[in-house]
Amino acid sequence: MKFLLVFDFDHTIIDENSDTWIVKCAPEKKLPNGLRNSYQPGHWTEYMCRVFVYLGENGIKEDEMKRTMTTIPFTAGMGDLLGFIGDNKELFDCIIVSDSNAVFIDWILKAADFHKVFDEVFTNPASFSSMGYLTVQNFHSHHCAKCPKNLCKRKVLKEFIDKQLDQGVCYARIVYIGDGGNDLCPVTFLKKDDIAMPRQGYALEKKLSQLAQDLNPVECSVLVWSSAADIMSYLKLLTQE
């Protein structure tokens, strides 16, 4: 029986938001006010497409974007944690479910040689157009009122678990590691033997804490982390059970 590790990406594996980090490529490292103010809640992917058009129109090429993205720092202790998971793949299946995009995640993981740790990455598809502009599509469509229109992480997780069950893979425990408000929906999918690991001081921890105060706690256990060393300590305990 293996364990399934589910990671968010921004502010979890890396210590920044990859989509806002790319603004370092823009002229004077900032976006015009009109573009910045054009974001509408729940429509982040469309907003980022406009950002990428702006970068393209200002002559920012793929090479420069890649150089910028691979300078993003990993969260404290994350290198050691991913190394540990990579050394123990017979125990862990490991996936990413992220609202970033496939190009950014691929660049960052490959530059650090961590791409082999992950069995699958579920994120918004991205590619460079014939004009050299980065374009991003919504990951899927769904009917969840709680999630942004491009991605319901609960739906992704459920479909992955179902697909694995069809192939005879059943997990002893799911460990969900994330930070954001959009990580709450998949955490509500977890069962009592599973573990939600929200990052300390971020939206997911606050939302889970509020649910507990409202006497409506999630079914799984909750273990807060501040550095990836906390996650590794817990995984080492799991492997000794």
UniProtKB/TrEMBL annotation:
What Gene3D superfamilies does this protein's entry cite?
HAD superfamily/HAD-like (3.40.50.1000)
Where, by residue number, does substrate bind?
Answer: D19, D99
Positions that bind Mg(2+): D8, D10, D179
Q: Which UniProt keywords apply?
A: Hydrolase, Magnesium, Metal-binding
Tell me its cofactors: Mg(2+)
Q: Which family does it belong to?
A: Belongs to the HAD-like hydrolase superfamily. PHOSPHO family.
Matching entries from NCBIfam families are given as: DKMTPPase-SF (TIGR01489), HAD-SF-IB (TIGR01488)
Q: Which residues form the active site?
A: D8, D10
Record bears the keyword Transit peptide:
no
Which named protein is this? PHOP2 phosphatase
